[in-house]
Amino acid sequence: MKRQIHDKLQDLITDRADNDVIIIEGARQVGKSYLVNSVLKTIGRPYLAYDLEKNPKIRREISKTEDFFDFSALMTDRYNLQPGSILFFNEAQECRKLAEYVKSFKADRHDIKVILTGSSMNRFFPAGTRIPVGRMKSMCIFSFCFSEFVKFIKGKPLYEYILLAPEKIPESRHRLLLELFDDYMVTGGYLEAVMHSWGSYFVHVP
Question: How far apart are CA 156 and CA 91, in angstroms?
């Protein structure tokens, strides 16, 4: 299902005139990696994606690099990073070495776009680290809002109706929305919880 923030992220990724590192924060299970991967699959550019929590091998290799030149050689030689590609690291806070390279991603690798996501990005830039202002764009991903919850369960028409915020609505639709809001209050907006409780009701919508 397409999140409301999907288009904003897509615009950031496809903006070739802006090579800022994209940093995406959010609690666990809000769907950060799902969102990024869903966008990457639609834009037609080659990409490499790694979860640094689940892939200790590449995490160790990056941590051992001496400088950005060494890191760039590692990604090219061992992982076939090509010019024009997108490089996506999920749970980036697991490898603090990457924080040292944020400035260089923009200054020295104009040919790639870098996306870093994490659930504890306050650990990514340790205390005392000079944050590279002007080198990155930050986004925060939250759990489903009520309208997205409705879109997941009931589909796009009712979702779009909510966004219109009409002053008057049919009584039957009002009752349905109240019931759905009660369900939302119980389930919450975390993707895994919604899938567990409502997966059988999922409506495939763009």
Answer: 31
Domain at 6-140, CATH from 3.40.50.300, 3.30.930.10, 3.90.79.10, 3.30.830.10: 3.40.50.300
End-to-end CA distance of the chain: 6
Is residue 181 helix, strand or coil?
helix
Sign of CA dihedral 96, 87, 23, 6: negative
Reported as a single tens digit per residue, the pLDDT across 158-189 is 999 999 999 999 999 999 999 999 999 998 88
Report how far residue 102's alpha carbon sits from residue 37's, in angstroms, rounded to the nearest whole number: 21
When the pLDDT of each residue in the chain is averaged and rounded to a whole number, the result is 88
Please give the single-letter amino acid code of residue 121. M
